[in-house]
Amino acid sequence: MGKIIISGASGAFGHAAAQWLLEKITPQDAILLTRTPAKLADLAARGADVRFADFDDPASLPAAMAGGEKMLLISTARVGTRVGQHRHAVEAAVAAGVRHIVYTSIIAADQPGNPAIVKNDHRATEEIIEASGAAWTHLRDSQYAEAIAGPMTIPALMMGGKPDNCGDGPVAFVSRDDCVATAVGVLTQPGHENQAYVLTGPDLITIPQAMAMASEIAGKPIVVDPVDDDAMFAYFDALGAPRHASDIAPDGPIPWSSDDMVTFGQSIREGYFAEKTDWVEKITGRKPKSLRDVMLAHKEGWPL
């Protein structure tokens, strides 16, 4: 097995993937890319090859990619501008000889009717990778269970409820840990070339059902108020959220835009997340965590 590159290795997903990868391969064969190498001192100490890379600076990338055979391209955070970053990364990787690119995408990225604007960046990146000449694997993750157990549940418990535009659209919420383990499995196993895998948890659950589960675990009420998309925009406006990705203030208090959130909810409502698969277990050899498992792990951080 040749050397394996992980991009964004100082982010939450990337750092977890890097730690897991070091359990699977010789540490010196792991190339970890980051704009902040000091944050990866722990992994460098284990023998990993930590390199500076900035996807906004293509000149930094040939040296960063040199010697890699496979790459995990973790989608960057900047919705609306990240496709250019991803293109720089893919072009540099292929030029350096990388033969297989694994990408963290989203469920239903390839479905034209999917209204979630986040899918646009992901499908554009998938197409760049498919056209690059490298083999590809798209990991189309469902919504993270951790996003429900933390950022959704905590304010809902504090307020006693939440507005929601997801209706009764079901989601098989998937633990980020399981997505990390699956990504590392694809990087270290043969036979995953030119495949798209939808990664989900074990249960299809609606947002109202998820909030009822959190309420039961916490022993505190959560009332879900079903609202339409206009009311959801008004709610985010009241929080001071920017409407569009282009309005997000760098290092501002809210790093997301309401059109992203509202169309994500619309996508759930219209059934684009209503898929359950067994790829996590097939690739990792372990059963995926349930939403309840993840909530119980987060409970100590809830306002009880």
Count of discrete alpha- or pi-helical segments spanning 4 or more residues: 12
Question: Can you identify the CATH superfamily of the largest domain?
Answer: NAD(P)-binding Rossmann-like Domain
- What's the pLDDT, averaged over the residues? 96
Q: What is the radius of gyration computed over CA atoms, rounded to a whole number of angstroms?
A: 19 Å
Percent in strands? 15-25%
Got a strand count? 9
Pfam family, one: NAD_binding_10
Protein name: NmrA family transcriptional regulator
InterPro entries: NAD(P)-bd_dom (IPR016040), NAD(P)-bd_dom_sf (IPR036291), NmrA-type_oxidoreductase (IPR052718)
Domain NAD(P)-binding: 8-189
Explain this structure to me?
By secondary structure, the chain is an alpha/beta fold. It folds into two domains: 164 residues, 3-Layer(aba) Sandwich (Rossmann fold); 112 residues, UDP-galactose 4-epimerase, domain 1, CATH 3.90.25.10. Helix content is 42%, strand content 15%. It is built from twelve helices and nine strands. The strands form two sheets. The protein has a seven-stranded parallel β-sheet with strand order 3-2-1-4-5-6-8, sandwiched between helices. It has a two-stranded parallel ribbon with strand order 7-9. Strand 5, helix 5 and strand 6 form a beta-alpha-beta unit. Helix 6 packs across helix 12 and helix 9 runs antiparallel to helix 10. It is globular, with a radius of gyration of 19 Å. The termini are far apart. The model has no long low-confidence stretch (mean pLDDT 96). This is NmrA family transcriptional regulator. InterPro entries: NAD(P)-bd_dom (IPR016040), NAD(P)-bd_dom_sf (IPR036291), NmrA-type_oxidoreductase (IPR052718). Pfam families: NAD_binding_10.
